[in-house]
Amino acid sequence: MSSKNLYIPIFILFLILDTVAIYFDINVLRYFAKPGLMSVLILTLIQWAPYSSLRLHRYHMLGLIFSLSGDVLLQVNLFLPGLFSFLLAHVAYILLMISFRPIKSMKLFVMIFFLLSVAGVMLGKWLVPDNSPMLIPVIVYASTILTMGAIALLTAYKHSLILLGAGLFIISDFVLALGLFKSGLPHNGIIVMWTYALAQLSLFNGFVRYQKNELR
């Protein structure tokens, strides 16, 4: 294995440690393992990012930093600040993908954004009671992450890792929402972490490969 790819087993090690911490309810281990995931990707990007565009590099780094911030905030039960951090992470990823391949049809983008906003409203109202103060934040967040998935289809449709990462991110957040607002799934926390971690790893590799293959 190339030294440049050593971050992958280290990332998987942190994911396994976090899984053990969730399963056995070891909070001390979680405070170390969960932030370790994004820290590994941030340090790797700093070390060997192949970007020729500083603007693109900043979008990618901001997405990772906001994700790390969201992880930490959610761990200490600051749900709304954590949700806002992940919202900003998705916005950074959206800007990164649009920078890769600008959307040619603004009418198509507006139509898709409108439809996904409606879908976000419907999903939010299904998940959260109408009188809950969480309804609006959940609707805004759901609309944003669905938009990220659509932007991935529009701008990176030839890059399976980016599409996989966006899809896994949507699944992860949906399962998380089920656990928070509905009955949840068996081993809900483990499912959330594996889909989330693999989403971030897929996006990371997809963004870097996209840059290397198409923008040099």
How would you describe this structure to a colleague?
By secondary structure, this protein is mainly α. The chain has one domain (54-214). Helices cover 81% and strands 0% of the residues. It has helices spanning 7-24, 27-48, 54-75, 79-100, 106-127, 135-155, 160-181, 188-214. Helix 2 (27-48) packs antiparallel against helix 3, helix 4 runs parallel beside helix 6 (135-155) and helix 5 packs antiparallel against helix 6 (135-155). It is globular, with a radius of gyration of 17 Å. The mean pLDDT is 87.
Radius of gyration: 17 Å
Coarse structural class: mainly alpha
What is the first-to-last residue Cα distance? 25 Å
- Shape type: globular
Low-confidence segments: none
Number of discrete domains:
1
- Major sheet: size, sense and barrel closure? none
- Report the mean per-residue pLDDT as an integer: 87
Q: What's the SSE blueprint?
A:
Blueprint: H1 7-24, H2 27-48, H3 54-75, H4 79-100, H5 106-127, H6 135-155, H7 160-181, H8 188-214
Quick summary:
Helix content is 81%, strand content 0%. It is built from 8 helices and no strands. The protein has helices at 7-24, 27-48, 54-75, 79-100, 106-127, 135-155, 160-181, 188-214.
Characteristic key phrases:
216 residues; 81% helix; mainly alpha
